[in-house]
Amino acid sequence: MAGKLSADSIRDELRSVLAMGAQVLARMEHLGEDAARTDAEQTALETVVAFFGRPALAVRNGSFGTPPVGWEVLEQHRADIERTIDATGRIELVGYGMLGTGFLVAEDLVMTNCHVAKEFCRRAADAWVLKLGVVPQVDWLGEHLRDAQAAFPIAGVAALHPVHDLALLRLGTAKGASLCPAPLRLASQGPSDAASRALYCVGYPMKDHTRTPPEVLLRIFSDTFGVKRLQPGELLSLDPAQQQLAHDCSTLGGSSGSPIVDLETHAVLGLHFGGTRQENHAVALWQLAEDPLLRRAGLRFDSP
């Protein structure tokens, strides 16, 4: 069938895939995690895990719906999560489309990835500047089935980190009466218990078949991409030597530049920059609390 699948088709396929995934889980319970699986069974297993364990909740009017089974704890943190939602925006080029995600870290500074910023920045002598002829902006809304915008122009480049995939962009003044959200709080200390610590990510995942099977994308994102979503997950590991952390929130290409937030403290632990089918990666921001580039930019790191 050309175009999007009908609701009935999606429900029928979902039932089939979930049934297969349940069978695989039952077999693994008896034979162990190394039990042989076909490609179809592996996809079904990933779909079950993602559908129930790592959802991607659409944001509407700055909030999210009733949390799914297994993530009821999100309701207890709704007010704090909504503040993170407000301060996360879609980075885009006027007349072109979205590039990634960014979040407010100071009154006029947005943090994102270097690989996002380089789409509209260039090196000039000893500084980074905006390319001629492009009009980048940050839209603090970008929600599903909502045409309203809260767009602020990106007026310049504050810094691109020479080591990490981290960029700071300077905001300009928005036309009209748009209000800029409050900056997010950056953690100055790492989590005391790294194993399975609950996290969440807010971003604008775009369709990406390079590391996620189309069937899994359809079930998690309902074939709707590039809109603001809340994606809960867990911290998998820390890599102090590389100043990185690994997590398992359901991210895709447009999630580049998303904040990785501690569900307990609501401080930003990481800056998401990429991943694989097994895990996702983020810059461990607390390890950069004394970084000269970030200190010169005036970023504040608060203890969790």
UniProtKB/TrEMBL annotation:
<dbReference type="InterPro" id="IPR043504">
    <property type="entry name" value="Peptidase_S1_PA_chymotrypsin"/>
</dbReference>
<protein>
    <submittedName>
        <fullName>Glutamate synthase [NADPH] large chain</fullName>
    </submittedName>
</protein>
<dbReference type="Pfam" id="PF13365">
    <property type="entry name" value="Trypsin_2"/>
</dbReference>
<dbReference type="InterPro" id="IPR009003">
    <property type="entry name" value="Peptidase_S1_PA"/>
</dbReference>
